[in-house]
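User: Can you predict the 3D structure for this chain?
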Amino acid sequence: MSLAEAFSLEGEVALITGGATGLGRAMAHALVAAGAQVILVGRRKENLEAAAQELGPKAGYAVHDIAETSRAGELVADVKARYGDVSILINNAGNHFKKSIEETEEAEFRQLMDTHVTGAYTLTRAVVPGMVERGRGNILFTASMTSFFGVPRVFAYTTAKSAYLGMVRSLAVDLSPKGIRVNGVAPGFIETDISRKAMAGDPARKQKVLDRTPLGRFGLPEDIGWAAVYLCSPAARFVNGVVLPVDGGMLVGF
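Assistant: Here is the predicted structure, written as structure tokens:
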């Protein structure tokens, strides 16, 4: 296998939830650059249209709220009819709020879990039969630093992202004998518009992040994109059931 073949995603059809913005959009850019046909999934048509236009002819989109879990099969059928069988699924969509357990209402907790966990479960369940039939596929979950350690006042989000670790391990064991690899990527602190605004108003938090990160800087969205390409490419054909931290060393920092 040549270097180009090892990292090529030519012929792949990748569905990325939350693909119109943030890290999902960065992953979409990287997958398109590697040759994949990418379908962006999200709730806001205007964002999806803008992102797909930016990405070019290898990108399409589908308007869908993954929290509407009963419609996961409809989404997969629609994508198959328009673009072909999904061979890569990236469970990236999510929401976030800062509240302790005392402040978190049950309805808020359920809504966040429906998006991150139940939404990812139902969509994964919908794509698996086609992957099994073809004997190949890749499923990727966007985890988080909160999957590994506690962060103050993000109880619900931490719970949801921690669940991804179990999903990756269990699915990898169940599905890899059928030709489907399952992995995750765990972004550290990445420089985005949202993070820049948040850190600008909280210099102490920014310094705490930098002090804990051995590389001494924030990551870039494309760092997550290229990690996703690797994990879904032939180069990672023997990588299965792992969650790859892309964090500048934060998990091992002191």
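The mean pLDDT is 94. The longest strand covers residues 180-187.
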